[in-house]
Amino acid sequence: MAATTETKTHQLAWVYDLNKCIGCQTCSVACKVLWTRDEGEKHQWWMSVNTMPGLGTPKDWENMGGGMDLSTGKARPGHQPTREEFGGGFDYNYQEVFYGGTAGKAHLEPQAPRENRWAMNWDEDQGAGEWPNSYYFYLPRQCNHCSNPVCLTACPTGALHKTSEGLVLRDEETCMGDRFCMEACPYKKVYFNYERHVAQQCIGCYPRIEAGVAPACVRQCPGRAVFIGYLDDEDSPVHKLVKEWKIALPLHAEAGTGPNVFYVPPLSPYRLNDDMSIDHETPRIPPEYLESLFGPTVHDALATLKSEMQTVRDGGSSEMLKTLIAYKWQELLGPFTVDPATLDRSNFIPVETIA
Amino acid sequence: MNPISASDRYSQRWSWERATFGTHCLNCLATCPYRVYSRGGEIMFEEPAAVFDQIQEGVPDMNPMACQKGSAWSAQLDSPDRLLYPMRRKGERGAGEWERISWDEALEEVADAVIEAIDYEGPESVVFEETVEGGLLAQAAYLRFAGLIGATTLDANGLINDFPAGHHITFGKFSCASSVDDTFHSELILIWHSNPSYTSIPYAHFITEARYHGSRVVCIAPDYSPSALMADTFVPIRPATDAALALSMCQVIVEENLFPRDFVRSQTDLPLLVHKGTRRFVRGPELMTGEREDQFYWWDQATGAVELAPRGSLLLDEADPALEGAFTATGTDGAQLELTTVFELLKERLADYTPEKAGPICGINPGVIRELAREAARKRTKIIEGFNTPKYYHGDLMERAMCLLLALTGNWGGPGRGIQGLALAGLDGYMLFGMKQKRGVAETIRVMDGLDGAIEALRAQDEEASDEILGYELLLRGVAAGTASPAAFFHFYHCGYEDTWNTNQWSDPAMTRPFSEYVSDASRRGWWGGLVKPGPSSDPQVLFIVATNPVRRQRGGSDTLLRNLWPKLEKVVVVENRMSATALQADILLPAAMQYERPNLQYAITHSFHVGFSEQARPPRGEARTEWQIFRALSEKVQERCSEHGVTEYLDGRRQPRRLDNLGSAFTANGAYENEESVMDEWLRDSIEAGTLSENGSLGSLKEHGTARFSGLGIFAPGLSLAANVQPDKTVTAFEWHVEDGVPFPTLTRRAQFLIDHPWFVEAGEDLPCHKENPAIGGDYPLLVTSGHSRWTIHAVSMGNSILSGTHRGEPLAILGTTEACARGIEDGDRIRVSNDRGSYTVRTRVSPRVRPGQLIVYNGWEPHMFEDWKGSNEVEPGMVKWLHLVSRYGHLRYLPFGWQPVPADRGVFVEVSRA
Description:
The complex is a heterodimer of chains A (355) and B (916). Chain A folds into two domains: 12-87 and 122-342, Alpha-Beta Plaits (2-Layer Sandwich); 88-119, no CATH class. Mean pLDDT of chain A is 95; it is low at 1-6. Chain A has 355 residues and is α+β, with helices and mostly antiparallel strands. In chain A, a hairpin with a 4-residue loop joins β3 (68-69) and β4. In chain A, the strands form six sheets. Chain A has a four-stranded mixed beta sheet with strand order 10-1-12-11. Helix content of chain A is 22%, strand content 13%. Among the domains of chain B are: 172-258 and 350-424 and 756-763, 3-Layer(aba) Sandwich (Dimethylsulfoxide Reductase, domain 2), CATH 3.40.228; 261-348, no CATH class; 783-915, Beta Barrel (Barwin-like endoglucanases). In chain B, β24 and β25 form a beta hairpin. By secondary structure, chain B is an alpha/beta fold. Chains A and B meet through α1, α3, α6, α10 and α11 of A and α1, β2, β3, α9 and β10 of B.
């Protein structure tokens, strides 16, 4: 168990229902517009959605190592992702095309070499398999605010700590920019700010949480696909989905960090036989692939979900599905139901920006 | 909680002084209410306002309603493609050389051009491309100016083609969409020819939630589409064969006798009598002297005789019309008539679509068709359609076949049933605006009384007509006095489309003559009389393009307009907030304020059934102005300049007198509509008066609550066409009036009409719905381009948003299936040449196994100047127009704004690709 700087009393958790996620990136954009538009932050997408299977962001992150060696309590070796591997942050030649008098010659394009170019969701909707039985799904990813935060373990300067709410937060004043956290994080969700020379990562929208407002990724999700709440609150949907019904599973739990972001695994349409008749037996997404992401209990989770859906189709009732539907949007927000527009935040405005 | 410190950068970043309401007024028509957070006159960020109440117990609410475009709008306000100052081109058009000028210089140059055009060629030579972008205030501004001078406004649906002609052919209207939450009631959801994962982001959740509620979801698409991920069953279909699939399902339903007999007999024309030989309806005077031409008959089994099919009600009451059988009757001329029913004709037609015959056409296993048909017959079924079918040459056949499937399964007029496209709810104040001479409720009542009087006068001619039908008649009279013109004729006569449309090998093989002969024929018969503007012999002089982008989307490539239309124009005036492909080709660029910089209201759409409202959160950047300010100032400038040109009064195209020397004061109704707020206030008050909004729709209430739900359908036909009982605690279900109350449809036969016995439809073999192969548009090539809207933009808007472009590859893409790519030695990321007999362009490719062999997906919205040589994906789209849509003056087949008219196809184009 990794050392924590204070007594943990709660653990915030997110549950993403991959059967409601439509890959629209509103969570990613909501996060970026709110938190990472300053200098050195262009390539930073604390929240990102990738098409799976795919190389994702940073490129090929699943093969970059990192994680917690539970026998030693130390970080496993890992690759430190480069800015190019995160990719994106394109600049365009607007001036040349619009005002340069080069009509029809120069065209607007990202001003970065095309070779090895990459972006946050470069392999969008690409997928795997073979038509008509190709497959893919969307995987929203953020910092897992782990129970055994290996970034914290790996940090030589003690810049990271786990809050009483279970968030893993970085003190950017203390951070020396050593980037061991980037090597250690198995999810590769730590970013480096090359301008300010500090690492940055999802802050769990703590200023919002403090004010009783749900994180931007949750509150803005048009698919109503993500729940937040305290894992230890037995009435919370996240508790029920993760602990009681066991249909929300961690991603790459084998990395040993105790992630607190969970996923309701993806169902998929029936496969088709060669004569285009429907194969009701063989799953479209190979089970072993899902198992590689969500562990061996993914099969049980999918079976539970399917069985509940059948119950409802047969006229029965399911608490689980009612929970996933979330008839009232606020059910997704856990205890963080405050409307930010009702808050007075003027006292947080930095003095130098007040005209 | 242990914050790092209250003064840390993140707590500071999440701070604001003001939270205003904002929405983006885009042509996604979602109109999501946002909160815009600002401090020191700068916008920090926005976030969905999430102000919707749960409407119906047991149905999820609509919150939060958002998408990534809306959530990144603040980043777009200061995007590098933003236009900030009036500019005049230097050098050649489109050369990319500009000089900044003052507003006064710009307006004077535009005003002079308008006055000279009126003087030389008449006011109809001043042409406006209609738009549905920019919000209602933008549209009201240019429409008011155009209306006052008697200009030409090209019908938006003739330009962008969001018009499902097949809905109109069947129902006499294309407004069929229930509110989006109604989907939750469905037991079977068919995502068909649409991709809600991309195009309905704010309310796609009703599909996934309906699935958890017990609905089965089926996605019918050529590729394993992003929306197939939501489905239980993916039915891959050969592109453009959807009519065959729907008809095959109909065949199974009829064969197995699964259809609801009373629904079919009451709602549709299937029991009506036709002549056995000619397949024409038996019309009133044929059997009864003095009967109306639009009176039809059925065989009543209760009386054992031919009876009048009621025109005033769809309810069967005591009648027991036969669906099947052969009958004889004696005509008024004494002849013995051999008659049968439309249903009998339909059965014959459906025999061509057994699953065994349709399966190979569609590439679908016959067993799958059978099962799907039986399921649709048994369940509350909704088709999630969208606007993809209208973009296909034979899209109308697909739509008609889908409507037939709904008819034969009893699937409209009840919760969870029907077909989702678009419906316009009534912001009636907007409709009343142009009719009022001055502000105030007394004037509103005067206008509404006048409308009532006109309606009653029309009713006296046909007492069995519904309010909706009379509303359309009234609208037709408005059209006759208005500025609207179906754009196809403008393209035909002025933009060089004649040769393209005469290319018979790209058209329906059933055509026996070149397209232009059908145009002449239609013109000779006066079918579009008074609507072709400017006339064939008169050149357009000034083109205004406000918040729209024809150079990007023009079927036939950007060059078609630039080569054929531009040289005729004295002045091209573009009012825009960003440097679009069209702005690049302007003579004068007038910078427009963006949403968050100005107040606005948005189209009233039934998706959410709420009014869209946006406030000003910061002043416009640079010298940008709102369209209302721009056209107000232009009106004043024309008033000021007209006497210098000696053009103070003139006769318009309809020989009505017009004045320019009071244009400025006419624009503001003598100062009553000084600014946007005064206009919005008036619209909202009048909408309350007309009954489409309750008191919570007042401007004051909107400022407090951000939105308001519509409380009724109002008094105008577009709203009434929804035919729904609006209740505060129920989802809105289209067509309830037709099913529950028997209110007739606004068609020739007053029923959902599947037989169109117009001679051209008969000649085409399309009198009843059928499947036709997609014409070889573009030539004989192996790949069919299916296109569709992208995930990250609304058309080209947002293309310059640096945050959104970071969520994808940031460059135009053509998506090719793995096997097709392999066969051509193409790898992911390669530059490829897409070409056919129409043209070619170069683009990067994405290779993906989700794409069907024989298919190429090119999501649209990319600007031509994002492609090499500024040749975009429209280079290979000839923009063919289906000849049958030239038909008019046949019952409900006549021009209506946004409605029935010839529309260009841009999808279903054949191409080849190779490595570039």
